[in-house]
Amino acid sequence: xxxxxxxTGAGRGLGAALATRLAGNGFAVAAHYHSxxxxxxxxxxxxxxRGGRAQSFRADLRREAGALELAEWVEAAxxxxxxxxxxxxxxxxRRGLELSEAEWFEGLDSTxxxxxxxxxxxxxxxRQSGQGRIVNIGDSSCDRPGARDLAWSxxxxxxxxxxxxxxxxxxxxPHGVAVNxxxxxxxxxxxxxxxxxxxxxxxxxxxxxVHSALRYLALEAPAYLSGSNLVVSGGxxxx
Length: 239
Fold this sequence. Notes:
The chain is of the alpha/beta class. It has six helices and seven strands; from the N terminus they run βαβαβαβαβαβαβ. The chain has a single domain, classed as 3-Layer(aba) Sandwich (Rossmann fold). It has helices spanning 13-24, 37-49, 64-78, 101-129, 152-172, 207-220, and strands spanning 4-7, 28-33, 54-58, 83-86, 133-137, 178-184, 229-232. The protein has a seven-stranded parallel beta sheet, sandwiched between helices.
């Protein structure tokens, strides 16, 4: 019987790529989306065409009610959950003081608030599985707070996700649920890309690079490995 994975923000970009790759690793996939309905359904069709199992779910995870509804739907459709990938997050490439009120809260709510409510709602299923894993998608500098030029609330939110990762790792260890983070640098689809030669590795990251780290934490790492942050940046943003 397949393990079950829930990927948030699976309708496009990194989330869509991780959902399809996890299906290739043998997971049945719950593909969450908020506004990318066509993309999430395309992901599910691709997984089913390859013989896998997938279903898409729309929910607003910025508030607790949406997260609790999603947890109910996943349990009804799949019967349980082994892996939660908190991927969703909205990046507004606007200078800090130029953020509107809506953009400020969007950056926070789509990152740290969403991770908190989603994780809390899904914890009962993850604990019941006996092999629960949570992987939060961060940012290559989220563990080192400092000055930022753009998207202040997004970066503050990602730093909050790192704090949540460590806090949840401590509270969930007695339940056998490992909580870790994967923090990409610039990916091929990122906004405001610098010249590739500025990346120490000489290239931007790929979805496969991020998936390799996720796969390790989801399938290979022991539950005793919890509270870690795997920076997948090709050497970028380490100073």
